[in-house]
Write a structure and sequence with these properties.
Urease, subunit C, domain 1, binds fe (iii) ion, TIM Barrel
């Protein structure tokens, strides 16, 4: 079926490049007074005042964008949306002054979520997770990476990953899946024994069911060292799982170096970095990914995104949607924090939540920009939102008129 979207005030995010770095992060390809043709679930063609030629007329349906903007749906390359129950009580502990690390050391945090998840059926876990995915799709997320990591034993990690697979089959968003067995050391086990279990049992089991695209480790003091990390990432790679990594959230941990050495697709968090991390990332295929929602919620420093870009690197932004450090998956909020707190220009923040986040989850051939042949994952905005910057600036005003995922209007 061919659908023509016409009367588009600004078609934003046109690019064929798989990622943007340095000065290119300030460029957003745009056509004014544009049209966009969808064929089934794909973008077939587009045009506007800067290209010759009229909009096609032989189409099955036409949609009037009402002079609003059309942009690629957000890509969220780092989430933990499959979790059970709530950690609201820890929210109060945080307000009273306990840090993320202190809550974790008392057996709360990730271990708390693991206990809740263990006692929740796969069906119920799916139901709770689906509600979160539906919420973020309605907020404009068209591609989402989801991690395991609240299982902390093989059976429960598999349970989480099956829920992620079912989500990928049932929802119109593009879903990628990551094994994060090494998220915390489970109670009653030494770290060494657990790393062995992840390598010798969990990775082979996950791979034999084809349940994950990526492997991740929480490389952090009190969790897993760079040496543990490399062992796990190398084992994952043997089984065809590309590394992504939690690095430098609470300390300068050596995580960036471990990730780059293992060919990670992305290194994520980066609240704490220096010159060495920038030099290590330069010229690599690894996308530095920052999670300003976690900085906001934990009152931690924001990553040095503008410094990275000045040094010629690319940056992606993602939500980290999870119950402990970032209980929001709103990518528009992430974009606004990128501008307000990290001093990214709107154009830089726009590229960080679209094409670069697509790259960081391995889908930049399919999503993250307006390009012929890509999935028709789109946001149509209300008429008054007529620049990418307006979305970040009027940060609480509803801006979406319609979301299209795989060529269909989200109900
Ligand atoms: O990315 N820091 C490690 N993992 C998550 C938080 C998980 C949790 O607290 O439940 C994060 O922030
Ligand atoms: Fe995370």
């Amino acid at each position: 079926m061919k659908t023509l979207i016409r009367n588009i005030g600004l078609l934003a995010g046109i690019t064929d490049t798989p990622r943007k770095e340095g000065a290119a992060m300030s460029e957003v390809g745009c056509f004014r007074n544009a049209w966009l043709l969808l064929d089934g679930d794909r973008i077939a063609d587009f045009g506007g005042e800067v290209v010759e030629g009229d909009a096609p007329s032989a189409v099955d349906r036409e949609i009037d964008a009402g002079g609003g903007m059309v942009l690629p749906a957000f890509c969220d390359s780092h989430t933990h949306v499959v979790w059970a129950g709530s950690r609201e009580l820890e929210f109060e502990d945080k307000i009273r002054g306990l840090s993320y690390a202190e809550i974790a050391a008392r057996g709360g945090g990730i271990l708390n979520s693991a206990a809740l998840l263990h006692d929740t059926s796969e069906e119920e876990l799916y139901r709770q997770s689906l509600a979160r995915v539906r919420e973020v799709m309605a907020k404009g997320t068209g591609a989402i990476e989801i991690k395991s990591g609240y299982g902390l034993n093989t059976a429960d990690e598999l349970k989480m990953l099956r829920v992620i697979r079912r989500l990928s089959q049932e929802v119109p968003a593009l879903v990628k899946s990551t094994l994060l067995g090494a998220h915390a050391v489970p109670a009653g086990m030494s770290k060494e024994a657990y790393v062995r279990l992840v390598c010798s049992e969990m990775i082979p089991a996950v791979s034999s069911e084809g349940l994950a695209d990526f492997v991740d480790v929480f490389c952090e003091e009190g969790f897993f060292s760079p040496t543990d990390t490399r062992r796990i990432l190398e084992k994952g790679a043997e089984y065809g799982l590309r590394p992504k990594l939690h690095a430098n959230q609470l300390h300068i941990s050596g995580g960036v170096q471990a990730g780059v050495a293992c060919g990670a697709l992305s290194v994520d968090h980066l609240e704490r970095t220096g010159e060495a991390e920038i030099e290590c990332l330069r010229g690599t295929a690894t996308m530095p990914t920052m999670l300003p929602g976690a900085s906001f919620f934990l009152r931690e420093p924001y990553g040095n995104a503008s410094g990275f870009i000045r040094e010629g690197l690319g940056v992606a932004l993602a939500s980290d949607y999870n119950p402990g450090s970032s209980p929001s998956g709103d990518m528009r909020f992430v974009m606004s924090l990128g501008c307000i707190q990290m001093r990214l220009t709107p154009a830089q923040a726009f590229n960080a939540v679209t094409i670069n986040s697509a790259y960081a989850m391995g889908v930049s051939e399919e999503a993250g920009s307006i390009a012929r042949g890509k999935l028709a994952n789109l946001i149509l905005t209300k008429q008054e939102f007529n620049t990418p910057g307006s979305i970040a600036y009027l940060h609480q005003t509803p801006f979406i008129s319609r979301v299209f995922l795989k060529g269909r209007v989200l109900a």
